[in-house]
Amino acid sequence: MSNLNLNFYDSSLIQPITEPETSTVPANGADILIEQLYKFYGDVKVLEDLDLNIQAGEFVAIVGRSGCGKSTLLRLIAQLENVSYGEIKFQSARNFREGITSADIRVMFQDPRLLPWKSVLHNAQLGLAKEQYALAATLLEKVGLKDKANQWPAQLSGGQRQRAALARALAHTPRILLLDEPLGALDALTRLEMQNLIECLWKEQGFTAILVTHDVSEAVQLADRIILLDQGHIARNFQVDLPRPRKKSIAFTQLEQQVLDAVLAT
Asked: Name one Pfam family in it (predicted).
């Protein structure tokens, strides 16, 4: 059994990064190289011989039926669980010699997980040094919660709580942001607003983003690439060559249907 490997890896193992013509994302994220990844829970095999290369600053969506291993993969990347076999390696896009640690990775869950006894601002400042408090306040303003900073989480709507959770995650200036169905419980309009907000902040900060979602339209809306998992394997890989900001179009609808058909076929 091997533990998660956090050392940076030899750049000869990856291909040179080529920015899509439509992308203006700065490369402030981290490359992720996953090799021969296995995950077992007792006798149950959740992930099997999985290989995946994610480039710095890339936005990847992972789709698939329930139980296919999507959230497990995210938890392994986040170091919330150990791999059974294989390696997950990281390399900073800022400096070849600079490694990636757990402090560079943040997770947003479906539940915002705010501390109810702390104000919205204090939630956004969790884990920060005092000199970083101003950044948390700035991010609350960016997510539209400047006037809610001194309120309690219970006083916020569901969408506002997720905005606060997003500000808290980004206040740590992560190189990698993992999104585990963070918009699943929101109403349709709030969900669209949050999608736009996440895309805007991703373009501004350039972190590597991995989104787990059951919403194929959301995957097409946000991702550079869509990975379809089936029984612990990568079944399909879809490149999303659509200009940003994305609007419903024939090409958008065709790709959405193609991905949906592939999910239904698994």
From this structure: ABC_tran
